[in-house]
Design a protein that fits this description.
With 128 residues, this protein is α/β, with parallel strands linked by helices. 32% of the residues lie in helices and 27% in strands. It has five helices and seven strands, in the order E-H-E-E-E-H-E-H-E-H-E-H. Helix 3 links the parallel strand 5 and strand 6. The longest helix is centred in the N-terminal third of the chain and has 12 residues.
Length: 128
C-alpha cells in the first residue's frame, strides 16, 4: 500500500487546519491548493468557487502506477472515465466510491467495482 491521499482546497480556516492535522496524524498525504474565486458579472449568482483536482489525481495515479495494485477513487465524475480505462488496461483494479445520485454511468461501467458510499456509512460515520 502506498497510502491514502486527500485532495482538497485550502480555505486557511482554523477548523480546516485542525481537520488536516488529524488527517496527517492518521497517515493521509494532503494535496491542497488555494480555493480559486472567480467574480461573476451576474450579482444574483454570486462568486464562482473552484478547486478541481482532476488533473492532479490523474497524474498521481499514472506516476505511481508501479506502486499499487488497486486504486480506490472517491468520486463520481465522468472526467475520470479515461483514467479508469487506462488503469485497467495497465492491469490495475479500480474501485469507485460515490453516492448513487452523483456517479456517472460511464464510471460505473468502466470500473471494476462501484460502491455506494451510503453502504459504508456505519463504518465511516463520526460518532459524537
Amino acid at each position: 500500500m502506498i497510502g491514502i491521499r486527500h485532495y482538497c482546497p485550502r480555505f486557511d480556516d482554523e477548523k480546516q487546519d485542525n481537520f488536516f492535522t488529524v488527517l496527517k496524524k492518521t497517515g493521509y498525504k494532503l494535496i491542497t491548493k488555494p480555493l480559486k474565486i472567480i467574480s461573476q458579472l451576474n450579482i444574483e449568482k454570486g462568486d464562482l468557487r473552484k478547486a478541481n483536482f482532476d488533473v492532479e489525481i490523474a497524474i498521481d495515479a499514472l506516476d505511481l502506477l508501479s506502486k499499487y495494485d488497486t486504486l480506490i477513487l472517491i468520486s463520481g465524475d465522468s472526467d475520470f472515465d479515461s483514467l479508469v480505462k487506462r488503469l485497467k488496461k495497465a492491469g490495475k483494479r479500480v474501485i469507485v466510491v460515490s453516492s448513487r445520485y452523483h456517479i456517472s454511468k460511464e464510471l460505473i461501467d468502466s470500473c471494476n467495482k462501484y460502491i455506494d458510499i451510503k453502504k459504508l456509512r456505519k463504518y465511516i460515520e463520526r460518532i459524537k
